[in-house]
Amino acid sequence: MFTNDSSSNQGYIQDDSDGQNTKLKVNPPYYVPLVELVPHPETHTAVLDQTYALMKDIGQSPVKLAKEIDGFVFNRIQYAIIAESWRLVNDGVLSPEDVDFVMSTGLGTRYAFMGPFETIHLNAKGLKNYCESYGMGMKRVLSSFGPVPEFSGETMEKIDQAMSQRIPPDPESLNARRQCRDSCLAALTKLKMDMKSDCK
Length: 200
Prior knowledge:
globular, 2 domains, 3-hydroxyacyl-CoA dehydrogenase C-terminal domain-containing protein, 6-PGluconate_DH-like_C_sf, 3-OHacyl-CoA_DH_NAD-bd, N-(1-d-carboxylethyl)-l-norvaline Dehydrogenase, domain 2, 3-OHacyl-CoA_DH_CS
C-alpha cells in the first residue's frame, strides 16, 4: 500500500496484500524530492528495497525509515522548529516576521545544503568536539524550552495577523506567493543539481 499522507501511522491503514505493505510519504515532488519510506512491521524487505530503487529511478530522493514513528521524520523535525518559533512569539522574544527572517536568512541557508549533524561537525573539530564544547550549553538552552504550544488563542491570532498582512489569505495573493516560493525552490534545485557532486 502506498499513500502520500504525511503523518498517519501505518498501523491505521491496513491492506490484505500478504504482508507486503509499505508506506510512502511524499512531499510535493516538483522541487522537494524527499520521499520517506515507512515500513509496516509486516512489510517485506524486498518491497521496501524495490520501492527505494523505483523512487531513485524516477528522480526522487528516498530515505528508508527503520520503523514507524508518529509524524514520520520530516514533520517531527518541522514541528520541533514550529513549536519553538511559536514559543518565541508567545514569550515576546521576536515578532512572527522576525522568526521567519531568522530562519530564511540564517539557519535555513545552511540547512538547504547540509543537515544538523554535518553542520555541527563543521562548526567544530568534528561532531564529538562540538558536543564536548557546546553540549552543556545546548542542554541548558533546551531545558528552558516551554511546553508544547496549544497552537490557538492570542498567539495564533498574532501570528495569523502578521502573516495575513504580509500575504492576504485570498486565493490570488496566496497563489502569487506560492509561485514565488516555487520559483525559489526551482532555482535552488537547479543550483544543487549543477554543483559538483562532492559539494551536494
